[in-house]
Structure formats: structure tokens, C-alpha cells
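Escalation from tier 1.

The customer reports that the assembly of two entities below gives different C-alpha cells on two consecutive runs. Tier 1 could not reproduce it. I'm attaching the input and our single run for tier 2 to review.
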Amino acid sequence: MDKSLNNENITRSSLKLERVIVSDKTSSIVKGAKRIRRSQQQIRTESIFKNTLVIISIFIIVVVFAILLTLFWQSIPAIKLTGISYLWGKVWDPVKDVFGVYPFILGTLLTSFLALIISIPFSFSVAIFLGEYFPKGTLSDLLKNTVELIAAVPSVIYGFWGLAVLVPIVRGFEAQIGVQTIGLGIFTSSVILAIMIIPYAASLGRSMIQMVPSNLKEAAYALGATRWEVIRSIIFPYTKSGLFAGVMLSLGRALGETMAVTMVIGNTSLIPKNIFSPGNTMASVIANEFTEADHPVYLSALIELGLVLFVVTVVINMIGKRFIKGFSNT
Amino acid sequence: MKTVKSLLLAGIAVAITGSMFITGCGGNGKAGGSDSTDNTILGAGATFPNPLYSKMFSEYNKATNLKVNYQSIGSGGGIQQLTSKTVDFGASDAPMNAKQDSAIAVPVVHIPATAGAVVLSYNLPDMKDTLMLSPDVLADIFLGNIKKWNDAKIKAINKDAKLPDMDIQVAHRSDGSGTTNIFTTYLTKVSKGWEEKVGKGSSVNWPVGLGGKGNEGVAGSVKQTPGAIGYVELAYAIQNNMAFAKMQNKAGNFITPSIASVTAAANITIPEDAKVSLTNTDAPDGYPISGLSWIIIYKEQKYNNRTIDKVTKMLKLIQWMAHDGQQYSAALNYAPLSSNAVSVGDALLKTVTFDGKPVLQ
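Tier 1 run:
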């Protein structure tokens, strides 16, 4: 507010000056007028640039809120039909208009967190290896590019690979430990998801580790610390919040992943008995059933499922932010 | 700082009104599009007949220069787009249900355009003969009542076959589809237990089994899992050389699914509105899990500033599809329409009006 007022003052006074200049016509003042005109133009460009930034940022906020509102608006028929029991209902039966999404919420959370647990050792190892041990060199370039390539591969390819390669392997594994041998299921989807989300935590972790001030590390080495001790007591405390932010980014990706999961999770609306059971996630139910939702309440129930997914993602992100804040305060 | 804050509030306000406006618009369905040009017909709907329709439309385009833009977004989506009047015709594997009828409010006509079938594909490594299934056994398998391949009920039908002591692994479609609709309509017709417990629809609450996305998803599950059984479209099964079961029809004969036996299933008395399910028909040599696929249009064609010229072109196109267009069916593994279905479709086309007057004579 203050700044824009100042800008206006400047413009006004310069206008007055200009009038004075025009009446005087001495050469030195003409030069001055040119300078003033230029600075006027600079101010105008500046304010245009600033306004553009403000408008674009507001536009993004508008879009997000518009999505949220549209989801809510369109899910009103389903909310009226099922009420709050939608969230813990265990049966999803579009034929009889019974909509309960508990199995899908469970499936989404199980696959995402299991994927996170599987991926963390890998992504942190890659981050430490690339950030601390070998920041430069052919091998580390190769590893870095390969990890980034993981993020670039379309998810349908992971799904296909999972179906063709991973499912038979998991089936063999299941036969050995003596559970039902399907191959498709929550465990398989978690493994696929784990591979897909490695790059997010790894890249952020790597750049965080590289940003650790070298005087801290050098001081520790000078005191006789080993590599492991430096990582444990210098790098890890310094990069905690960054590493955690990377993990949250991975989790966000895992929650929303649709295609690859749909292909290997088994797609059944029954509540999973264990991690090897087939299940379903919120995103895959929407992707599967949206095109053929043949009556309005059914469609509305699917949109409400989208709303629930939106809210779950926002809540988990908010919890994550709180954690990051907690880390950076210490 | 204050401006930013007030701008933010204004932004949220805009978001609220904006989304209301958008949803309001969607509800009223006033979005145009059908009146873009008079030489383009817009259609949307079923994915199952899409390869055939694409072929038909491209041939028709060569002959008459009329462009048809068909989006295979699914039967439910097609009916929805027709309801909101964003397309000229919808296409569906299932006739419109009561809820969809009340949503569209005005009369529509269903014109049969092609026919297809759903076959049961299975994976039994040692099974040399063709598996035979009766309606009861099929329903019991998909209800989870029959769990083993060497169950006495399956043995009773397949007397000479060597059935293994193996768990039955049911595979079904995870995505909503017309194929599922035909299959569950059949099971609802032949089994009381299925009707009470599950019912019919393009997605249902499956008591057992794994879902695969699309025909290829189900086919993948069946191929990979020994002891699996799943349903896929006839065309898909033929193209991929999959093993499929003979089904017992209403007359008691075990029928191998084929283009001929599907056409035969439609060789029955078709009701005037053509909204008939071809499942479990009386035809003695008809394959019992068959279904028609329809083109759906409004009975009164004067809406959204449409011209009579465009309406005539569209009706002639649909007429051509039911007659000359059928020659492309067999090559793409679709069943040509039976003569009964064609004549009912012709009669229906003549009932279509423009401003109260019939368009085709």
C-alpha cells in the first residue's frame, strides 16, 4: 500500500516538473527531463510486473479453491444420500446405491505408507551417496541421471512392468511364505509405488546434503570424526527438515498415483485382510468407474471420493508441514 | 500488504462465484457445440463398438463427405453428453435406465447398430477339450459358491474332461463397462441368488475375484493365473486366440460363441422400442450372453438451432449404418444385425420428427 502511494507521488511531482521544464527550455533541464521520463517508464514497468505476479498468484489460489468448491458442489447429492457414514461404510455397491469408502481409504493409506517405508532406505542412501561421498564423477552422474529417469518414466509403464514381471515374482514369494498366491495386491502396488517415489526424496535430500556448510564438516573431520560420525552428527541434524520435506513430497505422489496402482492392486472392493490381499485405492476407483457411472448419485459418490482424496492429501501435507517446522526449530 | 490481502479475499470470492457459475452451467447443459457446422455430426459413447464405428464413419465419409466425430468415452458418458445436448447422438451398450430417462425428460429412440457377445475365458493347463458351462454353474462360480475346478457340479456337465483339483480364481472388469452390463444382466436373468445379492449394472459389487482394467486387464489375469476364469468381449477373445467356454442356452444346447451364434441370438421378436436384452433368448442356436449396441437420439430433433438439413444427414447416416454399414462387421469380429433388428430400427427412424413432422419417409 505504502509503496504504491509513493509511486503515485513520484509520478505526480514529475508531471509538474515536466511542465516547468517545457516552459524553461534550457538544455540541462531537458536532459533532466529525459532522465525523469526514463525513470517514469521504469516505475511503470515495475508496477506492471508486480501486478502481473500478483494476478498470476491469485489465479492459482482461485483455481485450487474453485476445484475444491466444484468437488463439494457436485458431491452434494451423495452427501445427502449417505451422510457421514460414507467415510466408514464397508460396502461399495453402485447397483443398490450403497456407498462406503472405508476399504478405499484403507487401501490408499496402506499402499502409500508401505511404499514410503520401502523407499526411504533407498532414497536416503542415494541422497547421502551423491551428496556426501561422490558428489562428482562418472559413476555419480550415471546414478543421478538414472534416479531422475525414474521420475520421468510414465506410470503406465511401471504398471505394465509390474503386471508382467513383478506379479509372478511376488506370487512365488507368496507361495513360499504360505499366503494366498495371487500376486496382485497391496504389497505389489507398494513395491511399484516405492520405486516411483524414490527420486523425489533422493533429489531433495542430495541438494540439502550438498548445502551443509563445509566449515562445519571440516571442523568435525579436524576433530577426528569418521565419515559416518560426520553424517550422523553434522549432516543429519542439519538436513533433517529437508529430508523430511522430500519424504512428504514422495508421500503426496504415492497418494495420488493412479494408473500403475490400478494395474497391479487387484481392484476389489473387499476390505484387505493383510498386505498381500488385493484391494483398491481411492484414485483407482475414480479412474475405473468414472466413465461408466450411469446414474447421477453414483457419479456424485465418485466425485465425493475425489473430495475425500483431496482432503486426505491436504491433511497429511499439513501434518507434514507441522513436523518440518518442529524439526527446523530445534 | 493490505492490497494483497484484499485482492486475495476478492480472489476467493471470484473462485466461489466462478465455480457456482460453472456447476450451474453444467446442470443446465446449455453448452453449445452441436450447431458448429452442418457437415459435422458429433457423437459420443460406448467404447465396445468404437473400432466398427470408426470404420463405418470413414467409409461413409468417402461416399458422402459427411464428417462424423465420435468420442468413445463410455456408454454412461455418451448418454450424459446426449442429455446435456453437447452431442448429436449417443451410443450405448445398455438401453437407458429409468434414472437416465428421468434425467433426459424428453423421448429418445434407441436404434440397434451392432451386436456383440461376452465370452468366458479360462486358464486350465491340462484341459484339452472345450469347457462347458451351464447358467447355474456360472452364477455359482461368480458368487463364490463353487471354489474348486473339480467341483461335482462342473464335473456333471463336463463328464469326459480331466478337471484339476485347483482353486478357481475369478477375474472381472474393474472399470465400469458395457461388457460387465451384458454379463451381469445375463446372470441376473438366470440366477435368483445373483439377482438378490449382486444385481446388474456397468459396475457391481463383486462377491469374489480380482478386477482388471479393460479387456486386456482381465485377459492378462486369466493368462497369468492358472485356474483363472474371466469374461471378455468376443472380438477381443477371437483376436487374441483365447480359450473360451461353451455356454448352455435357454433351449438347453451348448453353444460355442461365434459371430454366427450371436446374430442367431438376435433372431427373435424384437420389441418396437428395440430396448431388448439379447441375453438368454429363446433362439435355439443363439449364444446366450449377447447384447445389442445402440445409437441413441432425441425423438424430436428441433433443439439448439439445428437445421433440418443436418438432421436429415444424421438420420441417413444411422440408416446406412444399420444396412450397408453392416458389411464391415464380420472382418472386425462384430456380429451383423439380425434382419428383425434392422427392420425395427428402420421403423424407429421413421418416428423421428423435426418440429413435429417426420423427417424420413
